[in-house]
Amino acid sequence: MKVLIGTSKGLIVYEILPDIAPKELAIHFLGFSVSMIFVDLYTNRWWVGIMHRHWGQKLHYSDDQGVSWVEARLPSYHGFKMVNGTPAKLKEIWSMKHGGGYPGKLWLGTEPGGLFSSTDGGASFELNEPLWYHASRQKEGQWFGAGSDLPFIHSIEINPYDSNHIYIAISCAGIFESLDNGTSWKPRNEGLLATYLPNPQVKVGQDPHQLLIHPESPNVLWQQNHCGIYFTKNGGQLWTEVFLKKGRSSYGFSLALDEKSPGRSWVIPVESDQRRISPNLKLEVFETSDFGQSWKSVSKGLPTTNTFDIVLRKSFKRKENFMIFGTTNGNLFYTLDEDPCWQLISSHLTKVNVIDIA
Predict the structure, then answer these.
(1) Are 195 and 227 in contact (CB under 8 A)?
(2) How many domains is the chain built from?
(3) What angle do CA 253, 257, 258 make, to 5 degrees?
(4) Quick check: is 312 in a domain?
């Protein structure tokens, strides 16, 4: 299989197969920071978002697996304003998702917290106004930046059995759900705790770091939150917090799910918001098979001492038994085993921002 690795200095494509050493196939956009990758399995198109230091966000796609690239038209905030009255402006593209049963439909999550859609395969995009003008956003302070100046939509999840049913995750605002293809939106943050706010149980103002829907049991969703690890079994009506081992931090960014078992997931913790390093300087992956009632470390092959690496929200991917993650220090690890045994692909990349599997 081909794996696309988006780093702060370019896009690297690897081929990874059983019993064969990983092979680097190509490097694209050399020297530029890759902020978003989306491999559209409906169309086999590769989408890549690039952050230029001087020219800002750019969007490119390839229909021939990177042999050639086309620069796409960016979504525009022309005519729209922020809550404080200043003109809205695209800062970064964070996420992209195919519209499922709607051919040609794409969803695009951006900073400053706007959700765009396309009905023509990405030739043009329109801002989703029901979300942009949502009542919760009109009160300043309910949507705000987290690790960034402005709110941003980093996760878009579509119900695999109902393309009208959409979830998005916003830092900071929380989880929002639409049952009508984006015509209306409701916050789904019951059970979450924003411990950084005077009222931790706010309906809007939560900080999910990553959201994933289970592909076979879509009432089950998991999130790695700023304030812990959560799951829901009822489509977001109520979230339940789960904890790693006693004395282990539940803070982090990255999350992966088992495609068959909804109670099975993997996380890679970070020590804390204040100290963003591997806990106890030890890089570990933790697995649960029972909705977080118990966890075990599945970290064979990973460095055990003086490891400052952490893994960002889009830099950990799983497909069947294949798992791969990249770190902020440019280390890239993978495993093809049911009982993970991690192998190092590279120790000399730059910061890994995002990974996707073709």
Answers:
(1) yes
(2) 1
(3) 160
(4) yes
CA 56, CA 148: separation in Å to the nearest integer?
15
Q: Is residue 13 part of a domain?
A: no
CA distance 282 to 5: 23
**pLDDT tens digits, the chain, 358 residues: what are they?**
999 999 999 999 999 999 899 999 999 999 999 999 999 999 999 999 999 988 899 999 999 999 999 999 999 999 999 998 999 999 999 999 999 999 999 999 999 999 999 999 999 999 999 999 999 998 877 999 877 789 999 999 999 999 999 999 999 999 999 999 999 999 999 999 999 999 999 999 999 999 999 999 999 999 999 999 999 999 999 999 999 987 788 999 999 999 999 999 999 999 998 999 999 999 999 999 999 999 999 999 999 889 999 999 999 999 999 999 999 999 999 999 989 999 999 999 999 999 999 9
Residue 336 resides in a domain: no
In a domain, 356, yes or no: no
Q: Distance between CA 262 and CA 281 in Å, rounded?
A: 30
Structural domain including 220 reads: 28-320
262 burial (CB, 10 Å; 0-12 / 13-18 / 19+) is buried
Q: How far apart are CA 35 and CA 352, in angstroms?
A: 10
In whole angstroms, give the CA distance from residue 49 to residue 61. Answer: 9
CATH code, 234? 2.130.10.10
Three-state SS at 141:
coil
